[in-house]
Each structure stands twice: as structure tokens, then as C-alpha cells.
Amino acid sequence: MKDDFLPELTKGTIIMSRVRLARNVNSLPFCIEDENSAKEVVKKVYRALSPVDTFNLYYVNNLTDTQLESMKESHLISQNLIDNKKTGAALINGDKSISIMINEEDVIREQCFMRGLKLEEAYQKLQKTDDAITRNIDIAFDEEYGYLTNCISNMGTGLRASVMMFLPALSQSGQIASLMEEMKEIGLTVRGVYGEGSKAEGYIYQISNEITLGVSEEEIIETVESAVIRICDAEQDYSRRIFSKHEIEVLDRAKKSYGILTNAVLLSYSEFLDNVANIKVGAILGLFDLSDIDGLDDLIVKVRAANLCEHFGKNLSAFDRDLYRAELVGEILTKLKEN
User: Fold this and answer.
1) In sequence order, which residues have a C-beta less than 8 Å from that of residue 229 and are 6 or more positions away?
2) In this structure, are residues 105 and 80 in contact, taking their beta carbons and an 8 Å threshold?
3) pLDDT mean by block of 10 residues, the chain; 339 residues
4) 3-state secondary structure (DSSP) of residue 124
5) What pTM was estimated for this model as a whole?
6) Which letter does DSSP use for residue 171 in this model?
7) Which residues are CB-contacts of 64 (< 8 A; sequence separation ≥ 6)?
8) Are 328 and 302 contacting, i.e. CB atoms less than 8 angstroms apart?
């Protein structure tokens, strides 16, 4: 499914696609504690990937807490990897579309990110990475059960396909609970921004598969993609019911929120999320002019606490983060409105 064929509202609804593959190494524990063994795996993966793309190598124990949190905020690494300071590492390509976590929950976790609904494209891109790894490393695989993983829920293909979505109408109408039940019935799950156990901040949710065993990679991607299209249709329907019949109120909220975000001196992250969601709803409906709706999604990640510190090149107190966040948000939003 290509973005060109999706309705305009769907473009604003679908933020990002991610495909993740879980792999382990024969003759090694699925969670490597020996530092020498762990470093040997890192070296093998790094060498295997050199013909595919240029990757930067990061060892968890060589990074500051702020750097690690910033990478997590950008979805490049997970909390599980951060917690493994002894043997954890990550390989990230230049445009940050591919991240390989080593010694996370499994020995190798490969991820590919793409903007919009591009699960198939992300899988094809990641498959080149996976092929290079499996050609050079003896991966744990069983003819009956498929790829062997630390958690039984990942066995089989080892594939998780997820789509991040902006669902304000379904959220405000109270339909999210029934959506979760509907997705569960077809083997999918609805989670928050950072996956299992995280909150759906700013009406942002992740839809992903739960079943990896007994199905093919193509079937997983097709199931998730079809479900996402249905969710987009439902979001459109409830958007017409809630927002389109009250365009003056939607425009009023968007303009007030724009005024707050471009004039605030102090801005907490929660206040930012509430107001940027109002602007995005107005922009999706075509009531509020913005040059790039995707720019709002980038901004949501950019002004998180650790990313702010990285952007300004220094550690910031909670007070300073609110001060610097207000400055950065005002600057970027003004450009998005003017261009």
C-alpha cells in the first residue's frame, strides 16, 4: 500500500512503520553475559554489515545516560538494551533508518523505520541486513519452530511489524478500548508510543502483531497493514462526527494552541503534547495551514527531555528544559507556519 493511494486524512494519521527481527546465535546463550563472547558477536555483525551500509557502533557502557535516553526517545534503542550496560551495543546506519541492537532481549534485534505506511518496504530493506547477518553468523533456527528466541512470543518468524498512528478522534470518542479488543481478536495489539507498558501520549498509538509462529512474514505484514487501513477508516469516520461538524471550534483550538506554543516562555512536555495535538488535528482537516504535518511528528520527538539536552549540547535541569523547549518549539512552529 503506497501513501499516494491513501486519503489525505490517512497521511496525517499514519506516522511511522517499523519492522523488527529477533535473532539468536547457535552455541551461545540468548542473553550473553560474557563480555568477550558479546564483543565477538558485535565484531561479526559489524563485519557482516559492512558491504550493506555504513553503520556507527555504540557500546552502551561508553555512552552517557543522556545519550542513551536520547537514542531511546528516538526509538533507536530500547530500555532493555540500556539496562544491559555490561554487554549491550548498537549499530545504527547514517540516516538512522536501521538500528541493530546486540544483547538486548535477544542477541540480535534488527529494526528498520520508515515514515508512513511502508511495512513491506521496511521489511525488504531490513531483509538485506538480515541476509548479510545470517550468511556470516550461525543463527539459531529450528525446522519446525523457526527462529528461536528468548521470549516464546517471538518464535517462528521473529518478526514484529508495527505502525505508529495518531488517533485523536477514536481517543476522544472513547472507541480505543473496543479497538484494542478488536485487534486482539485478530492477533494484533495496541500499545503506547514506546511499546509494551508505555502510555499513548498525544493520541499516539502503536499497532503491531502478537503472533509470529505459524505464519509467514508476508502474512504478518498483510494482517497489520489491513488492520491499519481499517483503523484509518474508523478514525476518519469519528473525525467527521467529532471534528468536521465543529470546524470553528477545531480551528479555535488550533489557533489558541499555536499562540501558546509560539509565545510560551516555559513549556512542559505534557503541555506541549496537548497543544500540538490540537494543531495537528486542525492541519489534517485543512483548517490550519502548515507546510509540513510530518514536521510536527519530528518535533514531538525532538523536544523530549534527553533530546533537548543533546540538541543544545548540555545537561538541562527540569526548569531549563521547559525554558529551552519553549524556545525551540516556538522557532520550529513559526517556520512550519510561514513556509
Assistant:
1) 1, 10, 117
2) yes
3) 49 92 93 90 96 96 97 96 95 97 96 96 97 96 94 93 96 91 93 63 93 94 95 92 90 97 97 96 92 92 97 97 98 89
4) helix
5) 0.91
6) H
7) none
8) yes
